[in-house]
Design brief:
heterodimer; A: mainly beta; 1 helix; elongated; B: alpha+beta; Alpha-Beta Plaits; DNA polymerase, domain 1; Dna Ligase, domain 1; 5-stranded mixed β-sheet; 5-stranded antiparallel β-sheet; 15 helices
């Protein structure tokens, strides 16, 4: 079996890809001009999965983040290798429960902020067992 | 230098990744069919739950202490294992990583690192794997594989002091480590040799290291014994293996969820296992010409109350090696008919494919024209792989599958199926 020569964490297709896998536009037997420009089609993984081993998928339940454009039943793409900085939407572990909220942090305080006025802000000073599970990088939302 | 990265209580860690509420609580994972305990969290170990002990024996401990119990979810563990290995490959390059098992990998580490440099590298490896994948690991580094295994063991033994990292990079540290380790806990020393060594008054690794190589050659299994002694001295003798080694034999075997009495069910089960094995065979681009079927029964009916499993097998050789599921099933089913004896209780069955060669070097048979089903099989594998589960299957593998494994407490396939994703609030 052939092995890849070097390894990068980015998604590079589920199979080894060669030029033979790209369909040719040359159906007539004549060299069509477009044939020189055939390339591989758009691969969503290339755009949405930046670091394959650290990327996980979640399903949104509820409307706690609706003002951030995350609605019930949407798919969240979460990358664990990204640093959770101020303002990022994160998956947090709070009291042993996973929760998606916007992360606000400065020198003196840290909050988990919902994007829905019906929900309350969570002051992290009141919790001892808070950790960050990962950072949300994309939302897949059906239109 | 060699290092080994070992996931802590791997199956339990996988379950905890999506159940952070269990982070400090006792957790166990059961084997196929919910029979035995195959992974225990540290908390469960402290409760006295034994490794590989049957579930029912520990039932009272489990219920009293509210231990979280999971059926094995190999889909999840396999995916997380791949993430751990991929992370290591990214950090060190694919050639420097040897996947040793689902939860362990040996690493080839450059020799020119300073003492602090080596430690920092181990720290970085551990930190990156844990951050990216969410799986906790222990790391041991030493001049040879056997010593790296020892370092890893020391790291796990003293979790607080070591913080999951143990480096044996000086003679002094190696001496201390070996003196603290009885021979039976060294990698590569089996139970029989351990008894032999104890009888000779060789109890710890440091004593074993000073055995003359010639004695080891005669008394500890020839070359393997010599290699062990050299490895203990810090001379690397066990090379990094190519992880893509093709297998000489492929087996699929399972315990039945409920015992099987009917020939029909037994045929279904064996056909299913054959299909599974054929899939594995094609994954390594192989073709097999030997099919071996075995069944395990609970003895004769007169001895109904005595649990005395008996195993029987039959094998046949095909005229041409093949990777075609249909042909392999056609070979396996008559063997089932031969093995089946009415009135017996069947507990387990299995299929072993042997005489495996690369598919492109299969010799044709003069008397039977080759039927090329490669394309069909590739299509079958493609559908089943992309759609997941057995979307397309042979009818003889059964539609109801009464004998299927019990997995009553399986968590979801969080990382491999759209309809089983974790639901966030």
């Amino acid at each position: 079996m052939d092995r890849e020569e070097y390894f990068g964490p980015a998604y590079r297709g589920s199979k080894q890809f060669s030029q033979h896998d790209v369909r040719t536009a040359n159906a007539t037997g004549f060299g069509a001009a477009a044939d020189d420009y055939m390339e591989r089609g758009i691969d969503l993984n290339q755009e949405l999965v930046r670091n394959k081993p650290s990327t996980y998928f979640f399903r949104m339940r509820g409307d706690a983040m609706k003002d951030a454009g995350i609605f019930d039943n949407d798919v969240l793409i979460v990358d664990r290798s990204i640093k959770p900085t101020n303002g990022k939407v994160i998956v947090a572990v709070l009291n042993g429960e996973l929760l998606v909220r916007r992360f606000h942090q400065n020198f003196t305080s840290a909050f988990l902020i919902p994007e829905n006025s019906r929900y309350k802000n969570i002051n992290l000073a009141e919790f001892t067992d808070f950790t960050v599970w990962g950072v949300v990088t994309f939302v897949i939302h059906p239109v | 230098m060699k290092a080994i990265v070992d996931c802590n209580n791997f199956y339990c860690s996988c379950e905890r990744l999506f159940r952070p509420d269990l982070e400090t609580k006792p957790v166990v994972v059961l084997s196929n069919n919910d029979g035995c305990i195959i992974s225990r969290s540290d908390e469960a170990k402290q409760l006295g739950i034994g490794m590989a002990s049957p579930y029912y024996q520990n039932r009272h401990i489990i219920e009293e202490n509210k231990v979280a119990v999971f059926s094995s979810n190999y889909g999840l563990y396999g995916d997380l294992s791949m993430r751990v290995m991929d992370t290591l490959r990214y950090l060190l390059g694919p050639a420097a990583v040897e996947v040793y098992s689902v939860d362990e990998a040996f690493l080839d580490i450059p020799d020119n690192l300073s003492e602090a440099g080596l430690y920092n590298m181990m720290k970085r490896i551990k930190h990156t794997v844990e951050m990216w994948t969410g799986i906790r690991v222990s790391v041991g580094a030493a001049p040879s594989k056997v010593l790296a295994k020892l370092a890893n063991r020391l790291a796990k033994k003293d979790k607080k002091g070591s913080r999951g990292i143990w480096v044996l990079d000086t003679e002094e540290k190696i001496k201390q480590g070996l003196e603290a380790t009885p021979v039976d806990e060294l990698w590569g020393v089996g139970r029989q040799y351990a008894v032999k060594l104890h009888n000779l008054g060789i109890d710890d690794g440091w004593q074993l290291r000073h055995i003359p190589e010639e004695w080891a050659r005669v008394n500890l299994g020839g070359v393997v014994g010599v290699r062990l002694i050299r490895e203990l001295k810090g001379i690397p003798c066990i090379p990094m293996k190519d992880p893509l080694d093709t297998k000489k034999m492929i087996a699929t075997t399972r315990m039945f969820g409920t015992p099987v009495y009917e020939l029909k069910d037994l045929r279904e089960a064996v056909a299913t296992y054959t299909a599974r094995a054929a899939e594995k065979l094609r994954r390594q681009y192989g073709a097999a010409s030997q099919v071996d079927v075995f069944v395990v029964t609970n003895g004769r009916r007169e001895q109904r109350y005595i649990y005395k499993p008996q195993s029987r097998h039959r094998q046949c050789t095909l005229s041409t090696a093949t990777a075609d599921t249909g042909e392999l099933i056609r070979a396996a089913l008559p063997l089932v008919d031969e093995l089946f004896e009415p009135g017996l209780k069947y507990l387990k069955a299995g299929v072993v494919l042997g005489q495996i060669k690369p598919v492109d070097s299969v010799q044709g048979n003069l008397f039977r024209p080759a039927s090329d089903t490669t394309t069909l099989m590739a299509a079958l594998d493609n559908i089943n792989f992309s759609m997941r589960g057995d979307s397309v299957k042979f009818v003889c593998t059964g539609l109801r599958r009464n004998w299927k494994m019990r997995q009553q407490r399986r968590s979801r396939l969080f990382t491999t199926r759209w309809n089983e994703l974790y639901e966030l609030k």
